[in-house]
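Example 351, ligand zinc ion.
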Amino acid sequence: MAKADYYEVLGVSRDADAGALKNAFRKLAMKFHPDKNPNNPEAEERFKELNEAYSVLSDEEKRAQYDRFGHAAFEGGGAPGFQGGSFEDIFSHFGDILGDLFGQRGGGGRSGRGRGSDLQVGVRITFEEAVRGKKCDVTYERHDVCETCKGNGAKPGTKPHKCKTCGGQGRIARQQGFFMVQTTCPVCQGAGETVKDKCGDCSGQGVKRVQRTLSLKIPPGIDDGMRMRVPSEGETGGPGGIRGDLHVLVQVEPHAFFKRDGSHVHLQRDLSFTQATLGDELVVPTLHGEEAVHVPPGTQHGTVLRLRNRGIPRLDGHGQGDQFVTLNVTVPTELTREQNELMQKLRAAGL
Ligand SMILES: [Zn+2]
Ligand SMILES: [Zn+2]
């Protein structure tokens, strides 16, 4: 059977760059990963092909050889034969690419030393709080290593035993046709150890769900949808592991009349046609108190006035934005008798 073209396997063009390759591989590898397709030899075959294609195309030197000689570049002696590749080789470059998806099975549990997953918590603040910044407390739930058993899940005074099924590996590899498939050990759930007498405090889990409250300083100028990262306040990575991060998603409530655009603020203001025609002094609200603005005679509908530095502080600490006031000239819909007479006179005078 002729081997499929590596570019076709990944569904990319021949000039795809490293990023495009990686994306294509990641997407397809997720789809055909053996863990997601148990007992599916076709998916297994596709997965193997993907893996092989990516191994070659992601390596600049091998890619150049492949572009020149095709599959012939790797046939015969000295070539990077995949057939003989060990199980570890096949999974080795999943570490960086699929690590977050497949690498941390049971993260946060007894299964391991590693990096705990990241957590996200939302906070809702008012428009003004976003402008001035705010100190606030966020409360969320996460897992901590159980203090009673120090995370091994065993009743104090007892010890966990090495899992007999997987020999302490946490995973079992089995041959499926031509390909080795690795699965989490069903007996120890990947921990590599089994516990006979479970710790009563954590039911043998090694971790406990706890409520945590953190004091946060939300910086002035933060905008709706922005995320703050609090390092090492996420999920536990198990005994000796590293904590994940906490992401704080900030939601900012809209303002009754100010609209935000980055560090600038927009305000709409109605103007009667006499104010627009003759000019006026207006008092407008700003985020920094009321401000008098001059409307020159002959101001047109839609005119925008700019109040410098009356906007929102920039997050980088360099000054603040401006406020823009859009003037909308209104036309009266109901006139008193006197007003009507005056309007008639204006018309007679040529206005
Ligand atoms: Zn415990
Ligand atoms: Zn096991």
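Summary: Residues 146, 148-149, 153, 199, 201-202, 206 surround zinc ion (ligand 1) (CB under 6 Å).
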